[in-house]
Amino acid sequence: MTRADARNGRVAPAGRAERGAGAARRASGADRWIAPAKVGVFIAALYPLARLVFFGLTDRLGANPIEFITRSTGLWTLVFLCITLAVTPLRRMTGVNGLLRFRRMLGLYAFFYAALHFTTYIWFDKWFDLAEILKDIGKRPFITVGFAAFVLLIPLAATSPRAAARKLGRRWKTLHSAIYAIAALAILHFWWMKAGKHDLVLPKIYGAIVVALLGWRLLAWARAKFAARPRV
Ligand code: HEM
């Protein structure tokens, strides 16, 4: 794109612009840390699964292994949701733009642990017995809320590849803002479950984290809106 193009507001096609930016990054070498860091994050994010496998093999899943696995995978789904939501505020605060390159992987890990959580419940806990599941939902309605969060996560995971993002254009961003609703539903699911046990310490901590992360976005949005207003 020439300077005249830029002045006239002409923009290179997305693919070309991205390739250009990619080449510039490679040339500068400033982002050289990202590839090894990504491998590190990928391996570290497998820790919750490795821990469950290790506990399973060494007979440490407790008296109720299904409950242990359901709870562990549920909590890790929430942890990965929070980490994914923290990427943008961290990038803005630190100015390290490369952090954005971890967001997709972290979001996919949230989906991965949610899928394990769901599979453990529906398969190993309920053996696909619909009548049993409906009876349980009647007794513990918080399960429906978790289910809603999981269903909303599916299109986000399905459209996470770059090709899908390119194809969807601006609609991708709108679709992916569902992550805010998912985080809110996850907290409601957790809170409701623990309220029945009169143990709200953890839901309060995670609730505060999610409120802070969503509140930061709301403030950033309000500030941008205010700054864009024409001054009289
Ligand atoms: C984004 C989706 C979801 C998130 C973030 C999530 C998160 C959680 C969390 C944090 C817990 C409590 C863990 C603990 O006690 O420390 C939990 C428990 C539970 N979740 Fe989910 N969940 C999700 C989806 C689902 C789905 C789809 C189902 C089933 C249809 C489900 C069923 C359950 C059940 C049955 C428990 C309680 C297990 C027990 O009583 O021991 N969740 N979930």
Automatic annotation (TrEMBL):
Any idea where this protein resides? Cell membrane; Membrane
Q: Supply the alphabetized keyword list.
A: Cell membrane, Electron transport, Flavoprotein, FMN, Heme, Iron, Membrane, Metal-binding, Transmembrane, Transmembrane helix, Transport
Q: Does the keyword Heme apply?
A: yes
Coiled-coil regions, chain positions: none
* InterPro entries for this protein: Fe3_Rdtase_TM_dom, MsrQ-like
- Textual note on the cofactor: Binds 1 FMN per subunit. Binds 1 heme b (iron(II)-protoporphyrin IX) group per subunit.
Listed GO MF terms: electron transfer activity; FMN binding; heme binding; metal ion binding; oxidoreductase activity, acting on diphenols and related substances as donors
Q: Which NCBIfam families does this entry report, sorted A to Z?
A: PRK05419.2-5
Gene Ontology BP annotations: protein repair
Q: What is its main location?
A: membrane
GO cellular component, alphabetical, reads: plasma membrane
Record organism:
Trinickia dinghuensis
How is this protein positioned relative to the membrane? Multi-pass membrane protein
The protein's role, per its UniProt record = Part of the MsrPQ system that repairs oxidized periplasmic proteins containing methionine sulfoxide residues (Met-O), using respiratory chain electrons. Thus protects these proteins from oxidative-stress damage caused by reactive species of oxygen and chlorine generated by the host defense mechanisms. MsrPQ is essential for the maintenance of envelope integrity under bleach stress, rescuing a wide series of structurally unrelated periplasmic proteins from methionine oxidation.
> Known Pfam families for this protein?
Ferric_reduct
Self-association or partners: how does it assemble?
Heterodimer of a catalytic subunit (MsrP) and a heme-binding subunit (MsrQ).
Task: Name the domain of life.
Answer: Bacteria
Question: Can you tell me where the transmembrane regions are?
Answer: 33-54, 74-94, 106-124, 144-165, 177-193, 205-222
What family is reported? Belongs to the MsrQ family.
Q: Which cofactor does it need?
A: FMN; heme b
Domain Ferric oxidoreductase residues, every copy: 73-186
User: Segment Disordered: which positions?
Assistant: 1-23
Protein's name in the database: Protein-methionine-sulfoxide reductase heme-binding subunit MsrQ
